[in-house]
Amino acid sequence: MSDKRTCLYERHIRLGAKMVSFGGFEMPIQYTDIQDEHVAVRTACGVFDVSHMGEVLVTGKEAERFVQYIFTNDISGAPVGKIFYGMMLHPNGGTIDDLLVYKEGDERFFLVINAANIDKDYAWISEQAKKFDVVTENQSDYYGQLAIQGPKSEAVVEKVLGLPCQELVFYTFKKMDVEGETIIVSRTGYTGEDGFEIYASHGFIQQMWDKLIESGEAKPCGLGCRDTLRFEVGLPLYGDELTDELSPLEAGLGMFVKMDKEEFVGKDALAQLKAEGLKRKIVGIELEGRAIPRHGYEVVADDKVIGEVTTGYNSISTGKSVCMALLDIDYAKLDTPVQVRIHKKLQPGVVIKKRFYDKNYKK
Amino acid sequence: MAKVIEGLYYAESHEYVRVEGEYGYIGITDYAQSQLGNVVYVDMPEVDDEVTAGEEFGAVESVKAASDLFSPVSGTVVEVNEALEDEPELINKDAFGNWIIKVELSDKSELDNLMDAAAYEAICK
């Protein structure tokens, strides 16, 4: 099956981007250099094409009850305009996907899901929806999406795009009527910096991209630095730190799972997991040297394999070689000495918090 | 355009050998560094390790990926370029000036299996 292209594909090619396959899409991994793009987001402003992300609209009388049922976070009593992060789980507690839920109205919710999981998620959502008085619509082909990220992103969105966004606080959104269509602007992102995400038609997304690039105020950034940025602040990537076989509790994302909520798919399995105690957990590891731990590398302690690396880099912001890894619970405590097998050699390191750089959100 | 230097021996896997007497200095070519992008780490063997022609002896790594290094010749490592431990980016600045390992060659006839500058230049197009 050949990869899909986003509405900005031709523009990426014209900018000389290096393209890779990601989540069933042909996406830019970098335009010039991952490090320069990473630094632009940490210090100024970068723009990402994230049109590969999927969108599902849920409407109807039982929309809230339905979202509560398939989602781990608790959206009850939330005001319109609020956004929640959480997961959809299998009945056995494994993670189907992590997603954002936008509350558009008491009977209207907008779900943002990962590109690679669109078909799987929508099949699951439609199946579960049969038990509720709701209508679901996969709008992934309609929406394009831009992420404008970095400490200068508010100024860029206001001045270059002319979209008032100053009053939005983190994890809220508003719908705006612009040029005959309704767009969604949210203060969200996946970089650990302040930033915005904009959902609109392909034509509108193309216009905004052109304005941003022509202004020179936002550096075009690829998925390469999107990964290094999210990694440094300990955000999970589905496929690495969350999978069909891994629960959010083991991924260290328990704060997005509300066990005191009435009922949701996977709750019983998680309750059991909690009662029995976790057997493995995702932690951070900092290595002494510069050797780079990468996805799939073995983690060793007491002469046995005790886990594997889920994501690792030489951190661009700190210069240290660090990784997230799924470890046996016996070795998951802070300060536990462990080794990572890198090119046959065992590199010494220590378990630390899986946040290698502090977030700079605008609360 | 990537630079190619006369007088060196080149492997298809984009390493070079500069021969001085019984010794060979092994590094990656300018073409290889340009394809790889910013080098952030070089994994090197240790002094006294044996390397074998055609076999892996380390890796050069960019932010995103590790690329194995293959030795163009066989021999014993007598020196590693320690400057690369702290400044792996030297490879991007001058790939031919910053060799990775110095090897005492065990079989100079292996050099006959490698390419000269003209032949290597042709495969980089």
Q: Can you describe this structure?
A:
The complex is a heterodimer of chains A (363) and B (125). Chain A is an alpha+beta fold. Chain A has three domains: 9-51 and 141-232, 2-Layer Sandwich (Gyrase A, domain 2); 55-138, Alpha-Beta Plaits (2-Layer Sandwich); 279-352, Beta Barrel (Elongation Factor Tu (Ef-tu), domain 3). Helices cover 21% and strands 34% of the residues of chain A. Chain A has helices spanning 9-14, 34-43, 63-70, 118-129, 153-159, 202-215, 223-232, 267-276; strands at 18-22, 25-30, 46-49, 54-59, 83-89, 95-105, 108-113, 135-138, 143-149, 173-178, 181-186, 195-201, 219-221, 280-287, 298-301, 304-314, 321-328, 337-342, 345-352. A six-stranded mixed beta sheet of chain A has the order 10-11-12-9-3-13, sandwiched between helices. In chain A, strand 10 (173-178) and strand 11 (181-186) form a beta hairpin. In chain A, helix 2 packs across helix 7. Chain A is globular and about 65 Å long. Chain A starts with 8 loop residues before the first helix and ends in an 11-residue tail after the last strand. In chain A, 47% of the residues are buried. The model of chain A has no long low-confidence stretch (mean pLDDT 97). Chain B has one domain (9-123): Beta Barrel (OB fold (Dihydrolipoamide Acetyltransferase, E2P)), CATH 2.40.50. In chain B, a hairpin with a 4-residue loop joins strand 6 and strand 7. The longest helix of chain B has 7 residues, at 30-36. The model of chain B has no long low-confidence stretch (mean pLDDT 95). Classes of the chains: A alpha+beta (363), B alpha+beta (125). Chain A binds chain B through residues 29-30, 33-35, 224, 228, 290-292, 294, 313-314, 316, 321, 342-343, 345, and chain B through 37-38, 40-41, 43, 58-59, 61-64, 66, 85, 88.
